[in-house]
């Protein structure tokens, strides 16, 4: 797979009440984590602050550069709201020292952290760290502590995993509830320590991934940026659900909201309902930045596959992935997938996802690995997959849940409030170039819901055509809209405290279990697996 090297000059805007906003520019490379460049950015204490993230080669996964130790060692980590441990790759990790494993997993190690070079390192617990992915792979090692810096903000003695066995060459920055840590004895994790050490006013952060054609998104810890979303910020409760093994008596350990409905909508007003309220009132849905794709319960996913004509590669040595016709990229902006959350009592929210966010044209050059009898000339990876393979492989015991990854999250602005156990959600204002930041406080009665901008401020590219197609955009799907127009953008007025300028085996059912890893030609699928099954799909056993 070719490495995409795209350097973007980005602006990081910080604000402190009563102090002029600080702007810092630095370069990031979008591409394989091990090839990333960049330097940390100076940030101010006791403020809402922003870190710029960059997409990896698949257009998914968002990485952040940090420094660990004294003196600081630059390390790249994948940001993950679906797990709670920060963990680093050791230079002597099995993957880093074995060419055979690197070939098997189609990965190598990005810059690692060497505790021997740090004067502030401490060993916390030998062999105490072990975390498992849904595909069965494991990262394990010791628990350590060391200073951890994001720009000029330094967390003293942050506890982290130190992986000596891993199938990934890049570590994970988990920013979930400490109850979801990969240990029986919880500890203050990154978000806890940011708050405990007075670096943010509330254990809350806002995630803005931007659309997949953008080089970067951002995370705002301790604040809300009202320029990054449209209309009202809806507030939803974080719920507990036994399907994830959560103890309902002790509170949530994951960012779970209720997915109450889905539909396909066209700008001409026609609508195709997918979830019927008579079937189930809602599905528990995890909002997970560490997962590239979006996974839905098999019953629901199969309805969507049927409506789009998607097929699943269920060959004996196939991928298990669901594929879709790349021509659906040309349906933009007429075809919208709408996700509905919550209820009238606890709070509601609706997020529209354009179809081009769900059609991933990343398989060029690997057509010979795909089934030979697909019904289209050009296959894309579908941004929606079924949880059925997780259940059939034994990774989970109940597949009646949704895992909303980046193919969903890029269309949403999401505030994760660990202090008040709430989620804020609104339609993302894509490609916003300004910031109006409202700082959050643990003293607030709950998550505030300031209004965002009145309408989409930037117009995304009007055409996303298949890269291998030379024909003009056409509609081949049976769901083709009958007329064109523009989607609803919501209403509201901006508010805030600080403003800154700008073959056999192909079936419509998933039957073959989780992704298989194998050397040789299957290495390409290992790369996809690494992109899909990251920290967010981890479960602690």
TrEMBL record:
The annotated region (Disordered) lies at 446-521
For this UniProt entry, which residues form the secretion signal? Answer: 1-21
Give residue ranges for domain Peptidase A1. 62-426
GO terms of molecular function: aspartic-type endopeptidase activity
SUPFAM superfamilies (UniProt xref): Acid proteases
* GO terms for biological process, alphabetical: proteolysis
Alphabetic keyword roster: Aspartyl protease, Disulfide bond, Hydrolase, Protease, Signal
InterPro entries documented for this protein: Aspartic_peptidase_A1, Aspartic_peptidase_AS, PEPTIDASE_A1, Peptidase_aspartic_dom_sf, SAP-like
Q: Which residues form the active site?
A: 80, 288
Q: Residue spans with biased composition (Low complexity)?
A: 459-509
Which cysteines are cross-linked by disulfides? 326-380
Q: Which family does it belong to?
A: Belongs to the peptidase A1 family.
Entry-linked PANTHER family: ASPARTIC-TYPE ENDOPEPTIDASE (PTHR47966:SF65), BETA-SITE APP-CLEAVING ENZYME, ISOFORM A-RELATED (PTHR47966)
Instruction: Name it.
Output: Aspartic peptidase domain-containing protein
Q: Where does this protein come from, organism-wise?
A: Cercophora scortea
What lineage does UniProt assign to this protein's organism? Eukaryota, Fungi, Dikarya, Ascomycota, Pezizomycotina
């Amino acid at each position: 797979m070719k490495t995409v090297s795209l350097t973007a000059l980005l602006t990081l805007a910080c604000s402190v009440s009563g102090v002029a906003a600080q702007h810092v520019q630095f370069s990031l490379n979008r591409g394989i984590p091990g090839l990333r460049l960049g330097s940390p950015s100076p940030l101010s204490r006791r403020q809402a602050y922003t870190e710029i993230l960059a997409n990896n080669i698949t257009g998914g996964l968002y990485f952040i550069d940090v420094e660990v130790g004294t003196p600081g060692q630059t390390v790249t980590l994948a940001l993950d709201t679906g797990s709670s441990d920060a963990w680093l790759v050791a230079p002597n990790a099995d993957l880093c020292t074995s060419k055979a494993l690197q070939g098997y997993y189609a990965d190598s190690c990005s810059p690692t952290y060497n505790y021997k070079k740090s004067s502030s390192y401490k060993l916390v617990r030998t062999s105490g760290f072990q975390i498992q992915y849904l595909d069965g792979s494991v990262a394990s090692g010791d628990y350590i502590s060391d200073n951890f810096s994001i720009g000029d903000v330094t967390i003293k003695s942050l506890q982290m995993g130190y992986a000596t066995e891993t199938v990934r060459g890049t570590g994970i920055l988990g920013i979930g509830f400490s109850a979801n840590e990969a240990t029986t004895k919880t500890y203050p994790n990154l978000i806890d320590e940011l708050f405990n050490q007075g670096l943010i006013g509330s254990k809350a952060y806002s995630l803005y991934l931007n659309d997949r054609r953008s080089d970067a998104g951002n995370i705002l810890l301790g604040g809300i940026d009202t320029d990054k979303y449209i209309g009202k910020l809806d507030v939803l409760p974080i719920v507990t659900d036994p399907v994830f093994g959560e103890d309902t008596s002790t509170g949530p350990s994951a960012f779970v909201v209720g997915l109450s409905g889905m539909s396909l909508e066209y700008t001409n007003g026609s609508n195709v309902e997918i979830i019927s309220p008579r079937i189930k009132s809602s599905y528990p849905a995890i909002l997970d930045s560490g997962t590239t794709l979006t996974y839905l319960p098999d019953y629901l996913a199969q309805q969507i596959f049927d409506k789009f004509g998607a097929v699943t590669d269920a060959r004996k040595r196939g991928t298990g992935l669901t594929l879709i016709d790349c021509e659906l990229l040309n349906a933009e902006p007429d075809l919208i997938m709408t996700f509905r959350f919550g209820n009238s009592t606890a709070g509601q929210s609706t997020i529209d996802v354009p179809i081009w966010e769900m059609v991933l044209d990343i398989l060029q050059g690997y057509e010979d690995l795909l089934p030979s009898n697909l019904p289209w000339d050009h296959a894309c990876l579908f941004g929606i997959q079924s949880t059925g393979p997780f259940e059939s492989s034994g990774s989970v015991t109940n597949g009646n849940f949704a895992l909303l990854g980046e193919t969903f999250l890029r269309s949403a602005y999401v505030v994760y409030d660990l202090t008040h156990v709430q989620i804020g959600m609104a339609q993302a204002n894509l490609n916003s170039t300004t910031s109006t930041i409202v700082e959050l406080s643990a003293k607030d009665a709950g998550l505030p819901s300031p209004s965002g901008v009145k309408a989409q401020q930037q117009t995304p590219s009007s055409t996303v055509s298949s890269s291998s197609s030379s024909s003009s955009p056409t509609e081949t799907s049976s769901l083709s809209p009958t007329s064109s127009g523009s989607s609803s953008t919501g209403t509201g007025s901006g508010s805030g405290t600080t403003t800154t300028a700008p073959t056999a085996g192909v079936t419509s059912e998933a039957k073959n279990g989780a992704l298989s890893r194998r050397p040789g030609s299957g290495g390409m699928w290992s790369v996809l697996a690494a992109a899909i099954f990251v920290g967010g799909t981890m479960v602690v056993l």
